[in-house]
Write a structure and sequence with these properties.
Distance between the termini: 57 Å
Strand content: 15-25%
Largest sheet: 6 strands, parallel
Oligomer: single chain
Strand order of the largest sheet: 2-1-3-4-6-5
Shape: globular
Number of helices: 23
Number of strands: 18
């Protein structure tokens, strides 16, 4: 930036974002946000031109999930911000700190001019933690406030609406605002002793780890606690890998599969103490409503309250989660898995493995076999993303993660079209790591424009499309509800079946390496070659969805 030119409001905003650690901005600009883009680029905040606004929000979400620093979504006025709303709602329910800067017409025309005009702030308020007009006289201060709110637990999106003339206005001279510093808080010593005695007295304690336990140093503290007490544990889908899922005390994931959760809930009902760590019910299906009675012994540890009544939370402690976990370490190593009976724990694992086993497909590839192949190849340095549908539920019970947050997904709002944008965000954050996106053909049709972003930036992501020419999860639910397909339609189920294209050929049009496979041996080889090639690749895998009927 030329020091002779006075700083503009856009510069003050971008400077504050950089102080909070923002490295990436995503969007599709209109003329009303060009100053924002310029100011970001001059401060080493890389602007990424997406192909749809929801996808830009999903990219920002993934960046926050992987870095813990807020990402920026730049939305043009009118259709730009309205298109972005599903992605912003996603960030709200995925607990992701995203600052949305929406453009607006100049103030001189307000109240009269009406082309592409509506109230952006009113639209955003139900879907954000904070939404306001930007005060150009206190721009840096207000951005710091908005980011404080975005990062406060649970994290979420915030929006500042910026008229174009305010963005171009000269910035006021302001104090040097910086991210808030929050002192770590711990349990009172007598409370730590009391809660520790509750764990010690339990014969069948069960730990449930959720998204909140991924933050900061909590994963290491959680592993130390689990191993010291030998606590068997479940994790939510987003918390997969918080402790490597190969760990003998890991019982797998909970959340969305009716059949798997039926087995898991049997164990939950046998527990005499449920210890929840950052366990957020926003990830769970409605079968978890009133999952246990008020009389059940429960202990909830988290960074802060989530204010829900989905199920009883029992004893609650909020504060610095790693510190609180360290305070609950036993004086001497215990073996709660033994008091459970290791045979009982293995019985559960065997029951779940039987549910999600690969079946012999009538045609194409078993989805379970596909995910087992992914799991077998995945190493600690891989980052994976998975989209929404029957394939995602299955993937969460077949793929075993090695590291915290290794499998990115939309499991709060559950937005289709998430996996490819998330993979792009992940590859931008970690350019040297293998990144693999897994999604159904319906999801790919929603988001295939973002393949252009991967091609333009030479990102070596590997996209695996499970191609079955159907919205399989909805088709399954349709069948279970005895809703017959429409008579006379050209497709078997006209509301859920469609003609799916050859995504390998489409990928080649974007300059990617495209491969079509229809058996598990070919898929295993194609995935291995694609990851090793470090080239942008799309694998179009023809799958047989029939096994979903037995797995869901």
């Amino acid at each position: 930036m030329n020091p002779q030119i006075p700083a503009k409001v856009a510069d003050a905003v971008a400077t504050m974002l950089r102080k909070f650690g923002t490295r990436f901005a995503f969007g599709i600009p209109g003329n009303d946000v060009l100053e924002t883009v310029r100011a970001c680029e001059e401060r080493d905040i890389e602007f990424v031109l997406g192909k749809s606004e929801p996808s830009c929000a999903f990219m920002a979400d993934a960046v926050y999930q992987l870095t813990g620093s807020p990402a920026l979504l730049v939305a043009a006025l009118g259709p730009g911000i309205s298109n972005a709303m599903s992605g912003i709602a996603g960030a709200m329910q995925e607990r992701s700190a995203v600052l949305v800067l929406s453009g607006e017409m100049g103030t001189a025309n307000m109240g009269i001019y009406n082309h592409q005009v509506f109230d952006h702030v009113a639209l955003a308020r139900p879907l954000t933690k904070y939404a306001e007009q930007l005060n150009p006289k206190r721009a840096a201060q207000q951005v710091a406030k908005a980011l404080d709110i975005a990062l406060a637990y649970p994290a979420g999106p915030v929006l500042l609406n910026v008229p174009a003339d305010h963005n171009r206005a000269e910035a006021a001279s302001e104090d040097d605002y910086r991210p808030a510093r929050v002192a770590a808080t711990a349990l009172a010593p007598d409370e730590a002793v009391r809660l520790g005695k509750l764990i010690a007295a339990a014969r069948r304690p069960l730990l449930l780890a959720g998204r909140g336990a991924l933050l900061g140093q909590a994963p290491a503290a959680l592993r130390a606690l689990v191993e010291a007490w030998q606590l068997p544990f479940f994790c939510s889908y987003k918390a997969k890998g918080i402790i490597a899922e190969q760990h003998p005390l890991c019982l797998g994931s909970v959340g969305l599969s009716p059949l798997v959760d039926a087995e898991n809930m049997k164990l939950v009902r046998e527990a005499d103490l449920i210890l929840m760590v950052g366990f957020d019910p926003i990830e769970l299906r409605d079968a978890w409503l009133d999952a246990w009675p008020e009389a059940q012994a429960v202990m909830s540890l988290d960074w802060g309250p989530l204010h829900h009544r989905i199920f009883p939370e029992g004893e609650r402690a909020y504060g610095h989660l790693p510190g609180m976990l360290a305070q609950l370490m036993p004086e001497a190593k215990a073996d709660k898995a033994a008091s459970w009976g290791r045979a009982r724990l293995q019985q559960l694992k065997d029951a779940v493995a039987h549910i999600v086993r690969a079946r012999a497909p009538a045609r194409g590839i078993s989805p379970a076999a596909l995910f087992a192949a992914v799991s077998a190849q995945a190493t600690e340095d891989w980052i994976m993303s998975v989209d929404v549908g029957a394939h995602r539920i299955l993937a969460n019970h077949v793929i075993r993660c090695h590291t915290p947050g290794q499998l990115l997904q939309s499991n709060g709002l559950g937005c289709m079209g998430y996996a490819v944008p998330a993979a792009i965000g992940a590859q931008l954050v970690h350019p040297d790591k293998p990144v693999v996106a897994m999604l159904g053909d319906g999801c790919m049709l929603m988001t295939q424009g973002e393949l252009a972003v991967a091609a333009e930036r030479n990102l070596p992501i590997v996209v695996v499309v499970l191609n079955d020419a159907s919205l399989s999860l909805i088709k399954l639910k349709q069948a279970k509800m005895n809703l017959a397909p429409k008579a006379g339609g050209s497709l078997p189920y006209s509301s859920t079946d469609f003609v799916s294209p050859r995504f390998d050929i489409i990928a080649q049009g974007f300059g990617a390496r495209g491969v079509r496979v229809d058996n598990i041996t070919s898929f295993d080889q194609a995935l291995r070659e694609a990851v090793a090639s470090r080239r942008f690749s799309v694998i179009d895998a023809a799958v047989d969805p029939s096994e979903y009927w037995e797995q869901m």
